[in-house]
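Checklist before submission:
- one chain only
- standard amino acids only
- sequence pasted in full

Submission:
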Amino acid sequence: MQKTKSESLLKRVKETQTEPTKAFQRLLFVMDDLRQNCPWDKKQTLESLRYLTIEEVYELSDAILSKDNRNGKQEIKKELGDVMLHLVFYSKIASETNDFDITDVLNSVCEKLIHRHPHIYSNIIAETEAEVKQNWERIKLEEKSSSDTKIKSLFEGVPKSMPALVKAIRIQQKARGVGFDWDKASDVWDKVKEEETELFEHIDTSDDTIHKVTNQEEAENEFGDLLFSMINYARFLGINPENALEKTNRKFISRFEFLETEAHKDGKKIENMTLAEMEAYWQKAKKNNQ
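Returned file contents:
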């Protein structure tokens, strides 16, 4: 079945000359021109583009999270174009040293997707999202094992520089992919409460105003365990904790900006206001769905 499906896919590719393929070819031509004739583009390296790419991905993320659905979609389109440019740029630079080119990049990801979706291109059965994810992680681990005699960790592909919250999500997803997971959501919540108890073993709460850490290192370790457990519980609820936290960040900023604006209208300065005064504006912001 895999051969038939793959041959069908190849036939569709050969017979297709659509607007998207023409547009992509146009981008490749533009990249060739820029790399040859533009002083700035000629100077760029894989390393010099790295931080710019990170910035572009964050800008894409901002566009996706934008509340302005109408203009937001146009921003998403624009930022996707910028990210696409970077992918082509990296491939162009690598082609100049005969390491790889855009064809190698695209064929590589196509082969990976075909191989890791045996329920589509072979006779493996995977009827649920969970089964698909388990197959993906299992095949990925097999690929790594076959390419090197050295035992490789399940988590080797998790970027070390990835933000800790996102990294925790990926670690838990990968562990679940090989069956290392909790059976029940209630057990996960019990773990959250257990970690909370262990955290407060290292905090002096005798003074309601100031809670003092009695052992900084242990408190930090337990706080990390508590966060990890909360992220795990969110996964069991089907909540993406990164998205949830970002929504809260934006909500807080929106309400505080409302507070600042309304206080300014009333001739008040934030730095001169009491907490009670600020709280009154804050409650007003909540009522206005800020």
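Reviewer check: The longest strand covers residues 203-204.
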